[in-house]
Amino acid sequence: MTKITALDTYDVRFPTSRELDGSDAMNPDPDYSAAYVVMRTDQPGLNGYGFAFTIGRGNDVQTVAIDALAHHVQGLDLDDIVGDLGGFAQRLIGDSQLRWLGPEKGVMHMAIGAVINAAWDLAARMAGKPLWRFIADMTPEQLVSTIDFRYLTDALTPDEALTMLHAVAASKSQRITRLLAEGYPAYTTSPGWLGYTDEKMQRLAREAVTAGFRTIKLKVGMNVEDDVRRCRLARETVGPDIDIAVDANQRWGVDDAIAWLQRLSDVRIAWAEEPTSPDDILGHAAIRRDVPSVPISTGEHTHNRVMFKQLFQAGAVDLVQIDAARVGGVNENLAILLLAAKFGVRVFPHAGGVGLCELVQHLAMADFVAISGKKDDRAIEFVDHLHEHFIDPVIVHNGCYLAPQSPGFSAQMHASTLAHYRYPDGPAWCEPASVARAQ
Amino acid sequence: MTKITALDTYDVRFPTSRELDGSDAMNPDPDYSAAYVVMRTDQPGLNGYGFAFTIGRGNDVQTVAIDALAHHVQGLDLDDIVGDLGGFAQRLIGDSQLRWLGPEKGVMHMAIGAVINAAWDLAARMAGKPLWRFIADMTPEQLVSTIDFRYLTDALTPDEALTMLHAVAASKSQRITRLLAEGYPAYTTSPGWLGYTDEKMQRLAREAVTAGFRTIKLKVGMNVEDDVRRCRLARETVGPDIDIAVDANQRWGVDDAIAWLQRLSDVRIAWAEEPTSPDDILGHAAIRRDVPSVPISTGEHTHNRVMFKQLFQAGAVDLVQIDAARVGGVNENLAILLLAAKFGVRVFPHAGGVGLCELVQHLAMADFVAISGKKDDRAIEFVDHLHEHFIDPVIVHNGCYLAPQSPGFSAQMHASTLAHYRYPDGPAWCEPASVARAQ
């Protein structure tokens, strides 16, 4: 009988702030980082991998939070985890003492999500399937059994979820065939970082269109005149047929968001992302009501299913982002995808950072095959950074993510990456020129 | 010139689960704990004290999160903190890399709150005033300058806040006189823990009334028949003139809460606290709409001012709890108190745990003197546990908190407490009988 022997953690940081990659109105100098976790078994070569994503300082806090979950994992039979992915997640989320540190939000919830994701990675590896296929091959009953419906039943009951899943189950194999042939649409944020010059933005926007992307996204929120100029330049550059989204990264209050977005309304924005605090459900609803020409979205910082439920109930968003490493793992994202499908809200998964593309593609593809049944009216974010550190990196071709084929959740990093970027003792951080950035 | 030399932290835990003190429907076995912080200066005897409250496991994570803030404090001139309490708080909350770990919620936000509270403690000590008086003696302009209005201006602008504060400023000294003479009303949760027998509950309820309390609170949510029986027994025990509140500690979904509270409506409940997820603003509004006979409240886990703003905007609560150690310190609680005053919502501060009574009394008293101007229609929770560990413990007499007289925020623990209860190496945890609880 296979046992879980350890939950090993690694504080891995990439000095991305040196190049201003990833700069936006709220995050001027991120060092993309991962609190990385390996769920080790006593079977040689069989481990589960996961991580929480952070942007530098505090990645040590995130790593210690994962360590605090070790007693829920060490010594368990493997079957207690991979044979009961719903019960396993509920044991972590239901730890009453740790729950106080959220509840179901922030550092502790992201730590729980990383460990839950590692368990799903392990389960998919054992099944010999990429995670999207592992989920897609579950029966509706199996999928629903992984979800915690606490606080959800006023919007979605288990029976409703089953009815929804059964309705699309018969046509799963057709969608698997389509997914394998076509991939899943991607959009790119690479042209739009605030630290870039107009010329660099335009060059990258042209390259994005040439590469097959149908949607690009620009960061906004530092200066309204700059934003108007950059959006118009981008529209001139890509022409009328490419969607342009903007992302304010929570920069504004509700009143500011309304005034600012009205200034941008003549550029034909595909969506305005994170116009204000991710906690402000009623604020997003007010912005959406007062700026009807701009679709409104949020979600990458939306901390759990209860908040997504309310965004949908309040009619606060036209579309939504999900993030694979912010909420309580695959289980909670399945709940969110079901809620989105029930309310008819399109999902444009958040990615970028380090490894977020690798993770979230599986969720979007499982959603297409087994939950919403849709992919042509939505797209996964793509940023072409840091994929070389993963053993099974994403493949984006002609503006689409190709379906991963290797077993698991694509979360495993190379051993050489862990050694080189481990903070603070890896060579990437110990060289004298690096130390100043490590404050 | 006085400098801040260090931010020292201590993982302090009390083995309260051995006695079932503090047991409720969601927290069966809490070990009340503090991630305790000392902001040290180079002036002998002059330090600031603060803490985040947790219930056991994860207190190490909370402590490490406070450590992650040291670079914002070490080496600063004291004036940069105590002379600019608003700017200091904004520098902590605005650290873009650490902000990713919330934003403004969970472990990192509680850590920031602990450090901000230590700064206010230090400022009040230097002024030679208890914190409530230090706040009450601020001009309206000084008080407003400490508040971060980001994400608030659709509900409360700085100018509105100034107008509110000026309106009560002239009568401050009369209320100070009343506060010093009368104290501030308390209510007690001591009779109502779920782990207690009916007889113990009744005995403690009688003792509470004899001691002068006008409100008691019972924990509910494990079994509806038990709750109906215990509430009726309590009503028989205390008679018709004492208020009885109930607290479900987030046990229910929205539908369950409605059904359960309807069963309790004939006992005349003063308020039902935390009927569902603290994140579920629309859920609280639905419960309040569907159970009009029971006033609805939440707040002890409400993680920031944006959430309180929405509770008020949505009409989701009849009254609200605040917690001194959950949100971003004194500054954010001042914002919340101003919002509550503007929306006319009564505040019943959450306390208990370890040291929460000591802290929150200052905020309630400052609110009475300088913000809402009210105290007779509200009360501070009181639980008679663990006060002996504080140098300036609360004094509750005839059902009222007496106004603290010593300078500071009453947050300092005895050195002997830190030594004895320090986890995992203090004697309270190293004795063989204790080790089993420390899992």
From TrEMBL, chains A, B:
- Its Enzyme Commission number(s) read 4.2.1.68
Entry keyword Chaperone: no
Pinpoint the Mandelate racemase/muconate lactonizing enzyme C-terminal domain residues: 198-292
Q: Which Pfam families match?
A: MR_MLE_C (PF13378), MR_MLE_N (PF02746)
From the UniProt record, list the reaction(s) this protein catalyses.
L-fuconate = 2-dehydro-3-deoxy-L-fuconate + H2O
Q: Which cofactor does it need?
A: Mg(2+)
- Keywords for this entry? Lyase, Magnesium, Metal-binding
**What InterPro entries does UniProt report for this protein, alphabetically?**
Enolase-like_C_sf (IPR036849), Enolase-like_N (IPR029017), Enolase_C-like (IPR029065), L-fuconate_dehydratase (IPR034610), Mandelate_racemase_C (IPR013342), Mandelate_racemase_N_dom (IPR013341), RHMD-like (IPR046945)
The reply on keyword Isomerase is no
- What EC class does the entry list? lyase
Report the PANTHER family cross-referenced here.
ENOLASE SUPERFAMILY, MANDELATE RACEMASE (PTHR13794), MITOCHONDRIAL ENOLASE SUPERFAMILY MEMBER 1 (PTHR13794:SF58)
Please give the name of this protein: L-fuconate dehydratase
Protein's organism: Dyella lipolytica
